[in-house]
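As the work plan foresaw, the team has encoded backbone shapes as discrete tokens. One protein thus recorded appears below exactly as we store it.

:::
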Amino acid sequence: MVTGIRSILFVCMGNICRSPAGENVMRRLLEEAGLDGHIRCDSAGLIDYHVGEPPDARMSSAGRRRGLPMTGSARQVTRADLDAFDLILAMDDDNYRGLMALASDQHREKIRRFCSYCSRHPDKEVPDPYYGGSAGFEHVLDLMEDGCKGVLAQLAEPL
């Protein structure tokens, strides 16, 4: 039985590293749980710099090593997204503040910090791996797997 959450939006700065990783990890977990037809996932960025681009090649490579396809293309978050999505997950404090500035009072309760769903990692934010090495992309995927499992646990009764 799925809760009232029917749609999840992952948000980072440019929508090419962290948020598409979250979207794709969550899609895989939903599919494995038999919930992929019940919950819609998407990702977006606060800035429009990368609009139309696929996920970062380094993130795609890290995902493929885990058997995870990295699909999608970058887009900018809109006010309409705040209406359309039931749960909006910010990757870091800057993303959280940006989303809260965009949101009206009625939308603010939908916006959460992604790492609040992590149970195995103590991180408070998902670090941006864009300017770092491959270990950063692996760490982001570790966080995504941890936090998305936490989201899934809150979305459905024990499977």
